[in-house]
Amino acid sequence: MKKTVSVVFALVFVLSLVFAQGATDDGSYAGVTNKGYRPSDSNYYDGLNYSLFRNPSDFATDRLRIQGVLGSSSFNFSDALQNRSVAESFSHLTKFHWDKKNWINYVLGLATEVGSGNNDIISADFSVGAQVGNYGFGINVTVDAKSMPMIDENADAGQNNNSILGNGYLPVVDAALSFGYGRRVVDTSSLTFDVGATIHFSEKLYMLQLNLDTAADLINKTRGFENLQTRSGLAMPLDIAATLGLMDQRLTVSAMLNNINGYYYMRTYDNIGDAASFNHGYGRYLLYTPWTFSTSVVYNPRLGNYNPVMALEFTDINLFFRNELEKESPMLEFFKYVNASVKLDIHNIVSLKAAYKYGYPEFGLSVAYRGNQIDFIYGFHEAGSLYGEKPVDSLTFRMKFGVDK
């Protein structure tokens, strides 16, 4: 089994080198669709998805872990709730009054606040997976509704427009079937050294840009998806990582290479049904999503009933050097790549988290019991091209079910 895994990983790496020169971006959709897939619950404290999508060397710790996740994030949340009608719809949804009227009013309220440029509106995450021993697998699906400048008849993204009518809207679906393995190669009283790798069989699907009227008709179900052009494709990216453990593994230092071989073999389809099943595609092209290098330091003192866990991550370091050095204030842009956080676990039931994440604050509250957990997270991210240009807030609600031993 181990030899088979090694051969597959080696093959993926060779293919990444062979096809690198044929890669293209996604034209006017670049910056929206050409990003490697990573579910929203993949930070240090997020269990199985952290191992699958961030740090596969975490699989070197032998455990039994079964996990299912349902989550949703709403963007531009605080501005949208200033509208009384949207606030009332949100209140009804929190009471599980999930009728069509409340959902339509709430989503359109979020869309009204997207402003100019690229932005997110609402997203949903679904996943199921398990780790048995040092092996892990998962099935992940993320559905996003995004906004961007309107694309004109020449296939160029137009000028930024603050009007909701001047934006284009983009439903995007990312999915992955993932397999991971980790191994401890050094295990002494003073230190440990773990390595791991994950391979993903990924699909990316997105509908060509919609205007507001079409998006509203789809939400209202007065128009179907059967005549709306869609693009989709498959990729086989690879993650590898190594972790050094010190102080009986209370202090860990990790290095991670993610999304190696991030090439999607894309085609255009006449409708979403054909795109999902890869029938009758045309206009084949290669979509490149970049690889990333990240490092992290995590300290878990294991103090018992009141345990503070501290973490510092420098994420996507290579993209900082590629994209930010020519900007007016590159060191300000560096904040977009730093994630510093502390989480206080109270009796292994309640967790409080505060972070300075990618240049903005984030706060979280979690309630957990025997592998089942409910998360509430409120924070910000940068949606503009420059740090501080366009901070966007989001509220995330997430439920996790499973076993963790």
What is the secondary structure topology, with strand pairs?
Elements: H1 2-19, H2 48-53, E1 63-75, H3 77-80, H4 84-94, H5 100-112, E2 119-133, E3 135-149, E4 167-187, E5 191-207, H6 212-220, E6 230-235, E7 238-246, E8 251-260, E9 263-269, H7 272-277, E10 282-288, E11 292-299, E12 306-314, H8 317-323, H9 330-333, E13 338-346, E14 350-357, E15 360-369, E16 372-382, E17 391-404
Antiparallel strand pairs: 1-2, 1-17, 2-3, 3-4, 4-5, 5-6, 5-7, 6-9, 7-8, 8-11, 9-10, 11-12, 12-13, 13-14, 14-15, 15-16, 16-17
Helix pairs in contact: 4-5
Notes on the structure:
This protein is α+β, with helices and mostly antiparallel strands and 405 residues long. 19% of the residues lie in helices and 47% in strands. The protein contains nine helices and 17 strands. The chain has helices spanning 2-19, 48-53, 77-80, 84-94, 100-112, 212-220, 272-277, 317-323, 330-333; strands at residues 63-75, 119-133, 135-149, 167-187, 191-207, 230-235, 238-246, 251-260, 263-269, 282-288, 292-299, 306-314, 338-346, 350-357, 360-369, 372-382, 391-404. A 14-stranded antiparallel beta barrel has the order 1-2-3-4-5-7-8-11-12-13-14-15-16-17. Helix 4 (84-94) packs across helix 5 (100-112).
